[in-house]
Design brief:
By secondary structure, the protein is mainly alpha-helical. It has one domain (about 1-210): Methane Monooxygenase Hydroxylase, Chain G, domain 1, CATH 1.20.58.220. About 85% of the residues lie in helices and about 0% in strands. It is built from eight helices and no strands. The longest helix is centred in the N-terminal third of the chain and has 35 residues, at about 1-35. The N and C termini lie far apart (about 40 Å).
Amino acid sequence: MRSQFDRQLEMLHYEMHIMGKLCETAINNCTAALLVGDIEKAVNMGELSNQITNQERYIENICVKMLMQQQPVARDLRTISAALKMVTDMKRIGDQSCDIADIISVGNVSSHTSTAGFGPMTAQVIKMVNRSVESFVKQDMKLASSVLTMDDIVDNCFIEIRKELLEGLKADTPEYSDETALDLLMIDKYLERIADHAVNVAQWVIFSKTGEIKVER
């Protein structure tokens, strides 16, 4: 019975790894479109979004079957419950990456991102998503904890970009049209939320190992 459960855990780990890689691709594609104007990557995010949705459902089914068939306790139960929580946050990373891509595909924003300071923010968000996924794959609590400490940097970028864009709107500066500034504000918020979901993934990695949720703000 235990050997069967161990095989199911291995399959769950493998499928979660695939889910994480899909999310990494999503954030990498949307930020490339944002910073260099690669509109093709933004337009072609639909199929990737479908893959992420299907993977989420597949993982949820695996977890439900394990809970019903194996009735796990202690650490095994934590692993499965954490996977259910993680896959939800991973799905939202994918969704919000696609939301950014949708804005880019219909708006003229890429030519303004360097002025607004999106480069450092996107680099930090990508690093957080990559590290959160890697912390799960490697079951590395030190790596997971490092994601929590990076969130303040993204929050500061979010505040600075929002401040600059709002001041530009109030002053009616020629750098941005009202529509472009509002699009950039939405992208700013989506990136901040993606970072929050990366933090959640890292927290669930820590929970699966220790039974505790570690919060560093």
